[in-house]
Amino acid sequence: MPRINNADISGSGFTGILAGCLDNATISSCHVTGAVVGTYKVGGLVGSAASGVITDSSATCSVTGTDSYTYVGGLVGHNSICEISRSYSAGEVKGLRSYCGGLIGYNYRSNITNCYSSCDVGATAVDSTCIGGLAGYNSSIRKIKYCYSTGNVTGHSYVGGITGENCGEITYCYTSCKITGDFDSPIWGVSVSGTCNASYYLSDNS
């Protein structure tokens, strides 16, 4: 299986260890480790993914985004109409202000299935928002299903164990993330027309 170990990547926008941008393509059974730093749309595996498929892949790394609207994720920074399944991220995700997630920073109309993140996720700005253990933001139409997240999630507002902001559907998921924020919730930080079905928060006493 394709593997990149101990990478050290620095860039501006659209930065990832395997690819800065994935467009109408498939990534399967790819695994990366190392560190990646960029301004926005920064991911451990891929910075920005559009109209493709990512499956059976992983990123174990430190991911840092420095722009105000960061879109930074442990696996993918910005995900748009790209199906992701049977994949995971581990390590840490650090952003400046918004859209930071353990697996995906910003998820737009994409199904996420059978995935997990154990990343610690945090944003440093005092007005940081949309910080999630799995996804910083999840849009309408599609589902996050059969997924889970662990680790520490830290931000100011809209901080959640699965998503920071949820406008879609979360089904059969769980989180045991430790959440720290002024406006936070175990599953999602805020929901705008989103739904949650058969999904749970596991506390230390569970």
Q: β content, as a range?
A: over 45%
Radius of gyration: 14 Å
Number of contiguous helices? 0
Main β sheet profile: 11 strands, parallel
Helix/strand/pairing category: mainly beta
Q: What gap, in angstroms, lies between the N and C termini?
A: 37 Å
Shape: globular
State the helical fraction. Answer: under 10%
Explain this structure:
With 206 residues, the chain is mainly β. 0% of the residues lie in helices and 61% in strands. It is built from no helices and 32 strands. It has strands at residues 3-10, 15-16, 19-23, 26-28, 31-38, 42-43, 46-50, 53-55, 58-65, 69-73, 76-80, 83-85, 88-95, 98-101, 104-108, 112-113, 116-117, 120-123, 129-132, 135-138, 143-145, 148-149, 152-154, 157-160, 163-166, 169-171, 174-175, 178-180, 183-185, 188-191, 195-197, 200-201. The protein starts with a strand and ends in a 5-residue tail after the last strand. The mean pLDDT is 96.
Supply database-style keywords.
mainly beta, 11-stranded parallel sheet, 7-stranded parallel sheet
